Amino acid sequence: RLTYLLAMEILPFIYELAKIIGQPIFDVARMTPSQIVEWLLIREAFRERMLAPNRPKTEEIEERRRVTYEGAFVKEPIRGLHSPIAVCDFRSIYPTIIIAHNVSPDTLRCEHDECRRENVAPNGVWFCKREEGFLPRTLKKLFRERVELKKKLKTLKKGTHEYRIVDTKQKALKLILNSFYGYMGFAGARWYNIEAARAITAWGRKYITEIMKKAEENGFEVLYGDTDSIMLSSKEKENFKEKVLEFLCEE
To answer: Is the separation of the CB atoms in 36 and 179 below 8 Å?
Structure first.
């Protein structure tokens, strides 16, 4: 009975992933997130009449595994019990960075001077802004589709069959969206690019530290920060929620 109940929760999710990437359920159930992204990219490359890069050889994969890079920023939490607390986070920070800065192996270090000046990552590499890259282009499609599904969810009654179907699909898209950044740093990836992966986390660290600084300038105490979220508190408890919302609405 337990196996059956687990299957009822997990199988719909696997079905949706299989439909999105076009691979058999048997294989999808055993794939890592990076492998799921790769099969999606192979499918998109075929649709765009592009040649997918060759699969890296074992020696190349082993060489890539020796290379590391700095990940997300984490602020050590302030000890103690705190109240009130507001948890604020960026919406899909890494996919948003990839789209906003056009991060892709085919846009890295273009020859345009304005891109060198205007679209430079904190780690020193830049990406083209004139021509949209293959990965950001693919991400945009998934992003738009998930936004539409989330809008549709608001019109459906929770617990209904249609609600569960739409919710499962948007969750499958969320998994793929959030796996794109890790894929570029995955040693076995066809579209592997360690410099692009480094640039994404560098921008992520920049944005999270900037928002912490702005929060402190607005009178908040930053209790904790991790990757794409921060926890805020304040000694002034009155109208705390309203002040947080006002801060988030600032340009």
So the answer is: yes
8 Å CB contact between 180 and 193? no
Rounded Cα distance, 207 and 127, in Å: 18
Note if the pTM is more than 0.90. no
- Whether the CB-CB separation of 159 and 29 falls below 8 Å is answered with no
Under DSSP, the state recorded for 155 is T
**Triad 36, 172, 169: Cα angle to 5°:** 135
Instruction: Count Cα atoms within 13 angstroms, Cβ side, for 183.
Output: 28
Query: pLDDT tens digits for 5-18?
Result: 999 889 999 999 99
pLDDT value at residue 251: 56
How far apart CA 119 and CA 71 sit, in angstroms, is: 20
Residue 24: what pLDDT? 96
CA distance 169 to 147: 11
